[in-house]
Design brief:
InterPro entries: Znf_C2H2_sf, Znf_C2H2_type. This is Zinc finger 239-like. GO terms for molecular function: DNA-binding transcription factor activity, RNA polymerase II-specific; RNA polymerase II cis-regulatory region sequence-specific DNA binding; zinc ion binding. Its main location: nucleus. Belongs to the krueppel C2H2-type zinc-finger protein family. By secondary structure, the protein is an alpha+beta fold. Among the domains are: about 80 residues, 2-Layer Sandwich (Double Stranded RNA Binding Domain); about 80 residues, Double Stranded RNA Binding Domain (2-Layer Sandwich), CATH 3.30.160.60. It is built from 17 helices and 30 strands. The strands form 15 sheets. The chain has a two-stranded antiparallel sheet. It has a two-stranded antiparallel sheet with strand order 3-4. Helix 1 packs across helix 3. The longest helix is centred in the first third of the chain and has 14 residues. It is elongated and about 105 Å long.
Length: about 450
């Protein structure tokens, strides 16, 4: 075998010096295919076979005279050199965008045509690129052949494995030629470049929203389709993004990798640590371009902007009600399903929202984190502090539309309204007498126990 490779290498070295293989081909005009005697791959031209054999020998005879990088094929060198020259000879006749390789133009055109020629034979889903189909198929097989020898993490495709290794090496080989910032991944550089150009070439055909990256559009479309292809193998919960599944799994493992160097608090997600640190710094980097309000978290700005736009893109398929945010829709659906997935491990009580469970737990701990800065009184819930402060300010924002009387809390207004309607919703199940307020029923019930 070594002798064969040696002979091939000699042949490769001599033949790659000649660009025109016409003499060789003239001698074998009658031959229709040329087969590699090592791997069996067939070629229509002998010159293509000669170039292919360099893969087996590892020879890279074509060298870039700018950065000294070497290639086994001359075509690859020509394509590479366009990185240095900036040449983009392939133009899209729809939007005018230019590309350094014809294959990139072919893929780009499918954005305009919507063509998805690659089909999954397992689930029937179609894709615009063969590589995307290959990666998708691994979701059915769960095959992860690429393993990192540093942290043992496994990957389903080589591209993601290569990108992952940059975490350990710290390598950032992609540089922005406008501001000089460096990135470890090409698509991150591409995404960054759109900051300078403002380009958003990927459009949602359902709602018309535009995106700077195709993968972001793909993820966005799952809002409309409800698709959640990433499943937790512990609790069966599903997610629309792989990153969301990764973060979710830390709930089960309890892993908190990110530590605050100011107060030592730990977090399972890096972005939560970054947001937390703004408590210490007071930084509010997200600004509303409509009213100028600032926020410490991007999500808070997004929520705030719905006040201006009135947008409610999330619809309940049970009752048709619309919501501004996906998590609000998810919580709302618990009304229809009766689901209460959040359980108190002290008393076993269940809740439909995690925030309700958090508030409930303070009953057991006695925690009162909300303090009045006027009188020092403490409360376990924020809304109770807000209501309490109205004692000091005299504010009474809840008004009775019948008599005009004002109240500091909504509950007081509700009780007051019953005096107009003579509503008595609290009924004694012993004697049948009804009362307008719960405490009056309690006082009445005690008269039966005393008898």
């Amino acid at each position: 075998m070594e002798k064969e490779l040696s002979e091939i290498k000699v042949k490769c070295e001599t033949e790659t010096k000649r660009i025109d293989f016409s003499d060789d081909e003239k001698n074998e005009k009658g031959k229709t295919s040329y087969d590699c005697d090592i791997c069996g791959t067939s070629f229509s031209r002998n010159s293509s076979l000669a170039n292919h054999k360099c893969i087996h020998t590892g020879e890279k005879p074509y060298q870039c005279d700018i950065c000294d990088k070497s290639f086994s094929l001359k075509g690859n060198l020509i394509t590479h050199q366009r990185i240095h020259t900036g040449e983009r000879p392939y133009h899209c006749d729809v939007c005018g965008k230019s590309f350094s390789q014809s294959v990139h133009l072919t893929k780009h055109i499918r954005i305009h045509t919507g063509e998805k020629p690659y089909f999954c034979d397992v689930c029937g889903k179609s894709f615009s690129e063969n590589g995307t189909l290959t990666r998708h198929k691994r979701t059915h097989t769960v095959k992860k052949p690429y393993q990192c020898d540093i942290c043992d993490k496994s990957f389903s495709d080589g591209m993601r494995f290569t990108k992952h290794k940059h975490i350990h090496t710290g390598e950032k080989q992609y540089h922005c030629d406008i501001c000089g910032k460096s990135f470890s991944r090409r698509y991150t550089l591409m995404s960054h470049n759109h900051i300078h150009t403002g380009e958003r070439p990927y459009h949602c055909d359902i709602c018309g929203k535009s995106f700077s990256l195709g993968r972001v559009l793909t993820t966005h479309k799952r809002i409309h389709t409800g698709e959640k292809p990433y499943h937790c193998d512990i609790c069966d919960k599903s997610f629309s993004e792989a990153g969301h599944l990764t973060r979710h799994k830390r709930i089960h493992t309890g892993l908190k990798l990110y530590h605050c160097d100011i107060c030592d608090k730990s977090f399972s997600q890096k972005d939560n640590l970054i947001t937390h640190k703004r408590i210490h710094t007071g930084e509010k980097p997200y600004h509303c371009d409509i009213c100028g309000n600032s926020f410490s978290h991007r999500y808070s700005l997004t929520i705030h902007k719905h006040l201006h736009t009135g947008e409610k893109p999330y619809h309940c398929d049970a009752c048709g009600k619309s919501f501004s945010y996906g998590h609000t829709l998810a919580t709302h659906k618990h009304i229809h399903t009766g689901e209460k997935p959040y359980h108190c491990n002290t008393c076993g009580k269940s809740f439909s929202e995690s925030s309700y469970l958090t508030k409930h737990k303070r009953i057991h701990t006695g925690e009162k984190r909300y303090h009045c800065d006027i009188c020092g009184k403490s409360f376990s819930q924020k809304h109770n502090l807000v209501t309490h402060k109205r004692i000091h300010t005299g504010e009474k924002p809840y008004h009775c539309e019948i008599c005009g009387k004002s109240f500091s809390g909504r509950i007081y207004l509700t009780k007051h309204k019953r005096t107009h309607t003579r509503g008595k919703p609290y009924r004694c199940d012993i004697c049948g007498e009804s009362f307008s307020q719960k405490h009056l029923l309690s006082e009445h019930a005690s008269t039966h126990t005393e008898q």
